[in-house]
Amino acid sequence: MAAVVGPAYFPVSALARLPLSMLVIGALTYIVSSAADFTTAGAVAALAGIGVAVGAPLSGAASDRWGQRVTLLTSTVLYSAGLLWLLVAGAPREGGLTLDFQLMAAALVAGVVVPQAGPMTRVRWIIRLAGPGGDLKTLDAAQGYESTVDEMSFVLGPAAVGIIAAAFGPAVPLWVALALTIVFVPWFALHSRSALAAPVRRAKAGPAAEAGPAAEAGADSAPSDHAKQAAAARAAGVPWALIGVLLLGMLSIGSIFGSLATVATVFADETGHPGSGGLIYATLGLTSGAAALSVSRWPQRWSPARRWVACAIVLVPMLCLLWLAAVPWHFAVVLLLVGAPIGPVLVTIFSAAGARTPSHRLGFVMTLLSAGITLGTSIGNWAGGMVADAGGHRDALWVTFASGIALLLFGILYAIASMKKASRQGN
Q1: What confidence tier does 88 reach under pLDDT thresholds 50, 70, 90?
Q2: Residue 233: is its pLDDT beyond 70?
Q3: Is the pLDDT score of 210 beyond 80?
Q4: What stretch of H or E contains 102?
Q5: CA separation for the pair 72, 74 (Å, rounded)
Q6: Which residues are listed as membrane-spanning (predicted)?
Q7: What is the pTM of this model?
Q8: Are 21 and 377 in contact (CB under 8 A)?
């Protein structure tokens, strides 16, 4: 992969996506330090996530139309201004911070304009490696790598917020996110490989582009059965019903992340270890990242639907173990177990979407799924915060458990929908 994009591309693309993964938890951490309750902070985090949910697909559509460079550079300027506004609006006040219009607007705007580097790097790999003369085997490896980095950013980004806040203060993570935005997002935008994601015009692209990059690769290589199936799926256009189910899966994963982040914070406070919630939550990323990396070595006969359902079945009972935790290290150990089945589901959802999406819609679909995680995280933050205010961390764990059940149900729904679609194509 390094021969395709150069070694510097990997750290740059990884660091360019941290401003997004740090936003929601960064806002939560900053506001909770001066607010009178968890509900205010949870509402601000939820508004930031709603902003991402609205802005990410718009950013993806803009990149499909005008290219990634223009979209990312514009986002850099706007997001930098949005973070500064949030820092000013959320500054500590005498009598405690309250949820006013300025604070809500700042959080919402910051979410709308945050740069979407993660989904856009996926688009670059697909266009580069699935086109004429492409390398489908390397594409599979690249997609697995990007899924792992995406998954780890959604876990380690919030964890970094907790670590930085504990060491330097609650406002510092947002300043770090601002610095990362100013340095690495333009670097990523101006990288030579951004030219690969130039606008794709559906009317001018012709049948090959309509069928997607994998279909084009068939002219110059001998694609696998999986590649042929993916090309056929792309030729039929975007299956919005299946993409909708994948989006619901991402919302469920995000809600698990968000509620666990809030629960870990509340649990740390209740057990006499304030400020260590981020460190506890960070353990989730260790096993989830490792498990995501392992997916590329799983047997090809394990379909995406089978992987999703199996991992969700394993996840649900593990979530129940969180109620048994009495001290921080107990909670951290259980999170290690919880992380293992989550990573593979993330890989599965992104891969399934990429295999079914035409070239001219890749930016939109990838950013839509990424937005689903962020919106789900905000929902988990908000719901977990409200329940924790009323009954503590044990009651808030029901939000996490419900999210796990939802992930399982949507996995079953995706399996049924996939079988029906395959049956119709067979006929």
Answers
A1: very high
A2: no
A3: no
A4: helix 101-113
A5: 5
A6: 12-32, 38-58, 70-89, 174-192, 238-267, 279-296, 308-326, 332-355, 362-384, 396-417
A7: 0.76
A8: no
* CATH class name, domain 2-426: mainly alpha
Six token digits for residue 278 = 């981020």
H helix or E strand, kind and range, residue 148: helix 136-168
Structure tokens at 413: 């729904």
DSSP states along 352-372: HHHHH--GGGHHHHHHHHHHH
Which phi and psi (to 5°) does residue 250 adopt? -65, -40
Considering the chain, what is the average pLDDT of its residues? 81
pLDDT of residue 65: 84
The rounded distance, in Å, linking the Cα atoms of 36 and 34 is 7
Cβ pair 157, 118 in contact under 8 A: no
- Lookup: tokens for 96: 């405690």
CA gap 236, 295 in Å, rounded: 27
Least confident span in 77-81, 126-130, 234-238: 234-238
Contact 346/292 with Cβ under 8 angstroms?
yes
The gap from C-alpha 312 to its chain's centroid, in whole angstroms, comes to: 18
pLDDT band at 176 (very low <50, low <70, confident <90, very high): very high
Residues 6+ apart with CB under 8 A from 120: 60, 63, 68, 71, 72, 197, 363, 366, 367
User: Nearest-5° angle of CA 377, CA 379, CA 380?
Assistant: 65
Cα–Cα distance for residue pair 260/173, rounded to 1 Å: 19
**Lowest-pLDDT choice from 168-182, 229-243, 372-386:** 229-243
Give the number of other CB atoms < 10 A from CB of residue 78.
17
Angle at 334 between CA 49 and CA 176, to 5 degrees: 40
Which is higher by pLDDT, 213 or 304? 304
Amino acid at 145: Y
Tell me what pLDDT residue 214 has: 43
DSSP assignment letter at 275: T
